[in-house]
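Handout, tutorial session.
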Amino acid sequence: MTEDEKIQVAVFRFSVISDFIHAPSMSRREKSRLLREKCSRKWQIPFSEKTRISRGTLRRWIRLYKQSHGDLKSLYPRDRTDHGGCRAMDDETRLLLIESRMKLPSATVPHLIEQMKRSYPEVKLNNSTVYRFLHQQNMMHPGEKNPADRRKFEAELPNDLWQSDVMHGPWVAVNGKQQKAYLIAIIDDHSRLIVYARFYLSEGLLSYLDALENGLARRGMPRKLYVDNGSAFRSHHLEYACASLSIALIHAKPYQPQGKGKIERWFKTVRSRFLPHAEASTLAGLNTAFDSWLTEDYQQKVHKATGQTPFDRFTSKMHCLRTAPANLKDYFRKMARRTVAKDRTITLDGRLFEGPVALIGKRVELLYHQSSPEQVEVRCQNKSFGMIRQVDQHVNCRVKRDKNNNPQMDANLQNTSYQGGKLWGGKHE
């Protein structure tokens, strides 16, 4: 026990025996009556599940206090004689466990117990006993000779740093079937304001880009975006979008979630304060209930770490925020590089497009949204050549070109009637 805990126990014990200490002239009959009374009642004993105190225990406390001439430390709880040991295991079992741990330094406790049972069937162990013993011996993580230097941090200003991650959510009904929802969330490190959060049916790139675009449109642009190492966060599309907006994309070290503590802690709040009361069965209903809880509950409650509500702390320094550009949606287009063929065609994701004559044989950039792949802008040497359209080969077969490559529709071909079904034309008159 710590010194403070021992003091609390000693103060409790003194309060129990104080009637005997302050009444030395009490008769034996009165002392006996008082002892019976104190032994029969229930007590709330600090750091103990017991509620009764025996007559012998009370007499021992009185004796110890008097022999020490009123020193409160005499009522401190005694340390165990086997302190640092483990009473649930004998010495031989402890040695065998240490030996097994040295052989399997990275094994989990359940796996270690399983190996012990295979090698020594007579040994009886449980998880809590082994956990406690390994912690006492500093062998819980024997491979960590030099622990990482982790320090608590906080961004100095709003939008200096955003943290983002994905949480597995509840199952919702989609077209008569059950499908899992995923909560994609972004939190401002300085204020703890939830920049944007929404449940999606996928944790893929398109869902994350939608969440990020909405967050930027609502709260401005951060200087840094701190994310995990999932496939969506490692995509070139996200890297390109962030770089275009002058946002530094930072990835957490693999298997070290401590750096994303604020977003992880908020996910814990969602699990404890929102999900148990969420009764929506569809994705739309779930997001409606979630938006209401987020706006009216979390964003407006005082945060213990900052002493302010997330919304007040975020808006207290509005002068330092960067607003998103008016054409924000264009920054989230996917970019592909292609060479324009001699027949002016450009192939993109299985679709055939027709480029400008001036770009024949040149390397161009194609910008488009994955949600609308038919709308493609072509650029060459940082100059836009406008939107291109898909090739219509039936139209092209009726286009005549002069020496200057100026296309003209052939009226005769355009009005030619179709004579399908005949291999040869009719008889000439």
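The second record follows below. Compare its token runs with those of the first.
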Amino acid sequence: MSILTVSHFNTFPHGGAAMAALRTHANLIQQGVESRYYWFHDDRKGSHGPNVNQVKLESPKTTFLKSLFGRKKQRQQQKEIYRLFNTHLQDRDPTSETFSMARLPEPGAIPAHASNVDVVHLHWISFFADYPSFFGSIPQDVPIVWTLHDMNPFTGGCHYSGGCDRFKSGCGSCPQIVSPGPQDVSVDSINAKRDALQGREVHVTAPSQWMLDLAKQSPVWPAGTTFTKIHLGFDLETFFPVDRTVARQELGIESDAVLVAFGADDLNSNRKGFHHLLAALKQLKTDCKVQCLVFGGGEIPNDPELPPIHHLGFIDAADRQRLAYCASDLVVVPSREDNQPQVGLEAMACGVPVIAFDAGGIPEYVRDGETGSLVALGDEASLAKKISGLCDLESFRTRLGKAALAMVQKEFELSKQTQLYHDLYRSVARTAAARAA
């Protein structure tokens, strides 16, 4: 059997989606797949591993006559894209949830060496892919596997809809933009996505059933699109239990208090819910000495009503993340809307119990009373009560942590997840080859 060739595309070589994709990529290489990972933009320095390269997008190929007559059309399209951006996005509140357009001012084609493969695997491609030119450069006979890290691939631009279901009927009057209307930027983007994917062979995967069920309701997917749930996989040689005292010493935390942890890329993200945790911490009723450990970018309010907070800043090194989890007694994931947040699973892989809001795909792994504890969305008083209870009950924390670790080992181990992708690649590549024969 010939060696499979797979090209992964992700906007960045860092961040949650990138880390999940890179873990899969590296494990595929170990399984004998010729896997390549391409990123478009990097604002940090560092080594990214084997077969991980920046992709240089090219101008779409065209004939001289088409080029001649197409220049005016392209200028008109650019003018319209800038108009949509200036009207609906330029003056958005900078703390708002991410919103990205499907059409970009500059078209960009994937070079042939990156797209002429058995399977193209897409991850998080916002601010990277101009849908018309990006998908137009993927050969028509190459199947596309697309892992959903958020909702953006099937909406008119939002990455999380906040409960809005207008994407099901083609968007318009978008609540997340400035000056919404029946023909706003959300309509332009969802139409561009649908047109770009028309006639393509697309296989959608998502780590949560919640995300998958939402995706199925969008009109962007071409006929015959398949939908498969595949968990994000974790390398249990990277995330594993470490003695709590040792972890605290390594981090320079001199405390015997119960440490309640929270982590996110951006502490100011309303969706990630750090503000809910801060409100809950003011309402704790426990006999234990409680402190908080936080990692992520952003400022923490100086509030005398809050317990002492150890802020580690933004960390993306896995070994330091592991220490942060293992130094903690419990981790709180108060996301208002989320797919399969990795903070919770990484904590569980370190044997640490998780308290979370009952939102998005979180309940699929935080199983109340079994592997963690769930709280009704936004209920800060109940969150405080749950945190207080786990602070007081060390034996219960230990039991939940052990059960959580066992679940991750059984259901989220990286090689098992990678094998599911390997099997999917083989299946779709075989079908594509038979169709071409």
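Points raised in discussion: The longest strand covers residues 258-266.
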